[in-house]
Structures are given as structure tokens and as C-alpha cells.
Amino acid sequence: MKGYKVFEPDWKCRGFQYEVGQTYEMEGTPVCCDHGFHFCTELKDCFSYYDFDPNNKVAIIEALGDIDTEGNKSCTNKIKIVEEITWEEVLRLVNTGKGCSGLCNSGNWNSGNWNSGNCNSGNWNSGNWNSGNWNSGNWNSGNWNSGNWNKTSFSSGVFNTEEGKILMFNKPSDWTYRDWLNSKASYLLNQIKHELLEWVWSENMTDAEKEQHPEHTTTGGYLKILDESECAQKWWDALSDQDREIIYSLPNFDLKIFEEITGIKTGES
Question: Which of 33, 124, 177, 215 has its CA 20 to 30 A from that of 7?
Fold first, then answer.
């Protein structure tokens, strides 16, 4: 198996000295994060474990022995350091855009990382000419802007230096989007699982469920995958009265809108 490995400037990794063109072997079965020579099959994944530093050495390797894989990293008990890759080649391999000095950019001329837009010095931008982070708009120096020419954060407008207030339940509120992100209500709602499994006993199955799962006569039931509204309802049913009150206390709270969007039946009227 071919892959990539990053080393310190002196070709050491975790105290072990390597040399281009040499093959190294160790006894025992390789186990990721425990025993073996580690590497990644995708070069960009190496920089989840090593600094994106042009002083480091990068090489193509070949795993010649047994291999253990965990997530985006692998290890082997026999490795060959095939050839060094120049940093110019590293930038070409980790970026699909052109003229980028950052990591994992699909746009062009980015000095930041994970940008799909162009000419960004920040990170995770899909817009262009941004010096901030997570912007989908253009020419923003703040963060999380979907508008343009903003020197603030969380703005969907243009030429703003102050964070604006947001609509909540279709009405103006005195909260900024940052207020919402930092709220206990936001934290609670983010605890809703998007997929849950629930065992349904035969006696509680509908006729349609029994038809879809004839194996229930042997197993005594079936494992049901809940949809998002069912997951939300289970989350709500398990909330304490105190936490429910936090949701009810949101600015402009509207029960009908809340139930329409979440699918939750609160039992209130």
C-alpha cells in the first residue's frame, strides 16, 4: 500500500530516525496509536497529526507488511521511505485550487485553510477576499458573514461594523446571532439526536410494521430507526420542566411555529 508520512526537519518521527530509500521493520502486529510505523493514504490527512510547516519533511512511503487502519490513519510493521516530496508538491497535492499556501483549499490564491472561494486569508470561507473565517459572502474581515464588506461578525447585510439583531419566530428581537449561539436554549436544542434506534415489541407494532418486519414473530419485535421529528419528540419528553421553561422563554416564543418547525408536540395550547 502506498501512502504519505511527515517527519521532523531531521527526518525523525517520535524519536525514530528515518532515511529516504531505506526500509524499516519491527516485530509484532501493528496497532494504530500503539505499535507500528504510522502513515496516511491521503496526504492532507497527515496534517491532522503534524504541523502544516514547510520545515518538516514529507515523503511517499510504501507499507510492505501487515496494516492496521483507524479512521484516516494507518500503521504497518514494515515500511519503505520511497522518496521525498518538495513543499511545492505538497501544496499541489493538498489543494485543488491554484496559488494556495494554505491547506485543503479548492479555490485559488488562498493563504488560509479549507477555503472554497478565492483570495482568502482566513479559514473555511466559501466567499472571496475574506480575511475572517466561515464567511459565505465577500470582502469580509469578520466571521460567519453571509453578506459583503462587513467588518463585524454574523452579518447578512453589507458595510456593517456592528452585529445586527436577528428575527426570532418571524419577529424582530433584541438578540444577536452570537447571543443565540451562546444561549442555553441553543445548547439544549443541539442535544437532539438526528438518528435514534428503538426496540418495538410485537404487541406494540402496527399492522404495517408487522408486514414490513415478518421476522418479529421470531425475534419478538424489531429495531426501529426514528425519524427527526420522533427524535425531537423523545428529546422533548425527557426534558425537565426547568429546561422546557428555557425554551419557552426565548424572545417572541410562538408555540405554533415551534411545533411546526421541530415536529414536537408540547402538549401546551
Answer: 124
Give the number of C-alpha atoms closer than 13 A to the C-alpha of residue 146, restricted to the C-beta side: 3
Q: Which residues in 80-102 are b (16+ Cβ under 10 Å) and which e?
A: bbbeebeeeebbeebbebeebbb
**C-alpha triplet 101, 102, 106: angle, nearest 5°:** 100
Average pLDDT value for residue range 150-161: 90
pTM of this prediction?
0.63
Mean per-residue pLDDT, 161-165 = 92
Q: Residue 227: which residues within 8 A CB-CB, separation 6 or more?
A: none
Question: Which among 265, 191, 268 has a CA at the least distance from the CA of 229?
Answer: 265
Average pLDDT, stretch 193-202?
Answer: 75
* Phi, psi torsion values for 90, nearest 5 degrees: -60, -50
Contacts of residue 131, defined as CB under 8 A and 6 or more positions apart, other chains included, come to 120, 121, 122, 140, 141
Residues 6+ apart with CB under 8 A from 186: 180
25: nearest Cα among 75, 68, 95, 69:
75
